[in-house]
Amino acid sequence: MPETPHSEFWKGIKPVENVFREGGLPEVYMPNIAEGDERYWVPISETVSSKPVWISPSKNMWADVLMSKSAGLVNRHYHPHPIWAYTISGKWAYLEHSWTATAGDFIYETPGESHTLVCYDHPDPMKVFFVVSGPLMWLDDDGNTTGHFDVFDYMKLARDHYDAVGIGADYVDTLIR
Known about the structure:
By secondary structure, the protein is mostly beta strands. The protein has one helix and twelve strands, in the order ββββββββββββα. The chain has one helix spanning 151-164, and strands at residues 42-43, 49-56, 61-68, 72-79, 83-89, 91-94, 100-102, 106-109, 113-119, 126-133, 136-139, 145-149. Strands 1-2-3-10-5-8 form a six-stranded antiparallel sheet, covered by helices on one side.
């Protein structure tokens, strides 16, 4: 039960008794996803880390908070599927676009987009909530594919990191839906 209502008009409404259909899994609830124990941030480059908050192997998707505490760079990549981003703090951009994102900005990345994510020096760390669908295709300086990074690579990276920092690789299982 959530917090007890006081003056809200809906305070007498009865909750649904059978919340989950057969085979349904509970939601993932994480308070303050952009804060907390730094061991939960998985390094994905020398300057950028990712905190997974939801993972779906069956959809090849994940949601995370990307963070860089100073100037940073994520490998140049191509998205064959859409991506959604909401900037929590800091400043970041894609070298290939005319905008620079700061706190409160939303970005929808269309399928078929290639770009280079850069993080600026800023008083606040760059933190962006991303929903990633499908793989990231790594690109060289000329835009040629050199590799990929999908949900299975992400889960392995996270499991290895969580094992190394004492959280335990099985923590990743709590995020899978």
